[in-house]
Amino acid sequence: MQTEVITKKKVKPKLGKIREGSRQKKTKAIDTNVLSLDEMFNKFMIAKKTEGLAPRTIEEYYKHYDNLKEFLGEDMTNENVTTEDFQGYIGFMIHDKELSPMTVNIRIRTMRAFIRYCHKKEWIYEPIHEDFKPIKTPEDTVRILHTRRSYEDDG
Questions:
Q1: Which residues of 106-140 are buried (b: 16+ CB within 10 A; e: fewer)?
Q2: Label partner for 114 (CA 20 to 30 A): which of 42, 45, 82, 100?
Q3: Cα dist from 15 to 11, 18, 123, whole Å
Q4: pLDDT digits (tens, 9 = 90+) for 1-18
Q5: How far is the C-alpha of 63 from the C-alpha of 124, rounded, in Å?
Q6: Helices (DSSP H) in 15-94: which residue ranges?
Q7: Cβ contacts of 61 within 8 Å, gap of 6 or more
Q8: Is the separation of the CB atoms in 124 and 118 below 8 Å?
Q9: Alpha-carbon gap, residue 61 to 111, rounded angstroms
Q10: CATH (residue range 37-130)
Q11: What residues contact residue 131 under an 8 Å CB cut-off, 6+ apart?
Q12: Which of helix, strand or coil describes residue 125?
């Protein structure tokens, strides 16, 4: 008797269908690089606190940021913050709040440090901190008062 060897034909799976089913639907990717101004400021303040700044300085940073938020009226993102926002803020402090140039400059320096930090961390791609600078202030006059007696005593 003859023995018939039947070999089963291996069936290859249809890879096309397997691959199709495993594909994820293409959806718009969520950009995890979008940060709100609040998120960036909170990260900035963590860095400032680790630098060992005085409590009063930390408090002032928060106050200055609150003033900026008051002007902006809404939270912005790193994608839509502009130089014009900060130039408008400077005008707001000078004309609407009627703050002294010295006070305005302190607040400008605080916000420039914040935006510079954001640019350094590449959260903000444009160096907008370079486009808004402290305003001109009247030169302080330093008056040295000498009495004739103290002048003669020195000499």
A1: ebbebbbebbbbbbeeebbeeebbeebeeeeeeee
A2: 100
A3: 12, 5, 43
A4: 555 555 555 555 454 444
A5: 22
A6: 15-22, 37-50, 55-72, 83-91
A7: 45, 48, 53, 110, 114
A8: yes
A9: 8
A10: 1.10.150.130
A11: 83, 86, 87
A12: coil
- Would you mind telling me the total number of residues written for the chain in this entry? 155
Q: How confident is the model at residue 74 (pLDDT cuts 50, 70, 90)?
A: confident
**Every domain of the chain and the residues it spans:** 37-130
Q: Cα(84)–Cα(69) distance, rounded to whole angstroms?
A: 14
- Is residue 105's pLDDT more than 80? yes
Phi (first) and psi of residue 62, to 5 degrees: -65, -40
Give helix 83-91 / helix 55-72 axis angle, nearest 10°: 100
**Burial group, residue 48, by CB count within 10 angstroms (0-12, 13-18, 19+):** middle
Cα 139 to Cα 102, 105, 142: the distances in Å are 11, 14, 9
Instruction: Confirm whether pTM is higher than 0.70.
Output: no
